[in-house]
């Protein structure tokens, strides 16, 4: 799977930029990449749906500006919430950007992969533990914005996938 990069408009021109991708996939790789996400990505591509997946991105402490632009330049974001999604600051930064883009008419579709939607919405279980760990380490406003984004995204009607 090839990585497509986007060099485009700044976030200030978000509403005027053309959409480069039909779908942006947000997921925790260790939970879903080799199974569910791989199948979903292939199914979307086989149907001619231009889908972004982050297979070859350089990982760092913070989400890259380029990836934020990719999120902005997508018509739809599919968020695959899985057991360890909230343990990744990277995933939570993606989520916060996706929720921001939702207010600018991006369609957001959540998938709850082997996780109860109420656990995401109420930040209980693994989601609550992960956020508490982030709060201990970061001690800044970011965790609260992640909590709000999780709550908002989990309140969107989506799909609940269980084995």
Automatic annotation (TrEMBL):
Domain called TIR: residue spans: 19-163
Pfam families noted in UniProt: TIR
Keyword GTP-binding listed: no
GO terms for MF: NAD+ nucleosidase activity, cyclic ADP-ribose generating
SMART domains noted in UniProt: TIR
Keywords assigned by UniProt, alphabetized: Hydrolase, NAD
Keyword NAD: yes
InterPro entries: TIR_dom (IPR000157), Toll_tir_struct_dom_sf (IPR035897)
Recorded catalytic activity of this chain's protein: NAD(+) + H2O = ADP-D-ribose + nicotinamide + H(+)
EC nos: 3.2.2.6
One annotated GO biological process: signal transduction
SUPFAM superfamilies attached to this UniProt entry: Toll/Interleukin receptor TIR domain (SSF52200)
PANTHER family, sorted: TIR DOMAIN-CONTAINING PROTEIN (PTHR32009:SF39), TMV RESISTANCE PROTEIN N-LIKE (PTHR32009)
Name of the featured protein: ADP-ribosyl cyclase/cyclic ADP-ribose hydrolase
Native source organism of the sequence: Castanea mollissima
